[in-house]
Amino acid sequence: MLAKPRSYMNESGRQVAPLAKFYSVPPADIIVIHDDLDLDFGRIRLKLGGGEGGHNGLRSVAAALGTKDFQRVRIGIGRPPGRKDPAAFVLENFTAAERAEVPTICEQAADATELLIELGLEAAQNVVHAW
Question: Which CATH superfamily is domain 9-128 in?
Answer without folding.
Answer: Peptidyl-tRNA hydrolase (3.40.50.1470)
